[in-house]
Prior knowledge:
It is built from 11 helices and 12 strands. It is of the alpha/beta class. The strands form 2 sheets. It has a 6-stranded mixed β-sheet with strand order 2-1-3-11-4-12, sandwiched between helices. Strands 5, 6, 7, 8, 9 and 10 form a 6-stranded mixed β-sheet that branches.
Amino acid sequence: MITRRMLAGLMAGSALLPAALRAQTVEKVEMPATGERPWAKQVPQLRIGLLGGENEADRLGRFEAYGKLIEATFKVPVRLFPAADYAGVMQAFSAKQIEMSSMGASGYAGTWLDTNGGVQPLVVPRENDGSISYVSVMIVRKDSGITSLEQMRGKSLAWADPNSTSGYLVPRSELRGAGIDINHYFSRTGFAGGHEQAVVAVQQKQYDAAVTWASGQGDVAQGYSRGNLRAMVEKKMLDMNDMRIIWTSRPILNGPLVVRSDLPEGFKQDMTQFHMALASAHPEIYAQIERGGGLGYAKVTHEQFEPIVQLRREEAAERRRRS
């Protein structure tokens, strides 16, 4: 059972995070020296999973320069594997078909459970104030007349993906915590197939509202400083003047860069250093893969994601009770 104390850990804003991870001066890290590594014998090619939720061409385009930079730095071939949905990356980790991927916290927790600890987090992105949290938001069309969560009673809601933290796990938990019976409060709920698709479904009036992720910082009119809304605004898929945010979650720990636990320590150290240096050494590449601004990365450990692991267990137990 998830307790309020556990939820507080899950939703902790920067003030409640460990001191080393609160808003602070970003650590200056140099890019790793260029050259082959001993770990290449065990990792002859680096296979990187790309989460679903955005069309494949855009994902490959955003990560192309990133993959080439890793290749040039470590002299190892890089292959990008765009998955149709979050589960695709999770399954690829379980089958040892990829070595690394950026994931949401819920996807990481599910993979950790599925592989019995076979994956581990290295770093998470920092926001513009140096913190390492973001928020889930519920968005509606302005012309819907809906201005509050209370007015969503009897309306339809799109989740992003069953393995999304901000697009499913956390909003369900918070809404239940607010006394909302999700199965009866909304006329219907459904999975849109990803964050981008969920917002499009609202734009096209297939759903009245959707939940998605945002930094929670910066100009709302621009889709905040980072996140799915910002990415859609930049791609001219979304005009925030047509939309309204009617609900915002408490802060959520950012999703991690994840690697397989069985890979060499030298590989993990190199990937950590590479990402810790990326924002300052190659800001354009950093902005592409992180969908906007931010202050680079912060190191993390599995223990920080334990509340999410517990929420995944609770969600699985609830599904078993319903079946």
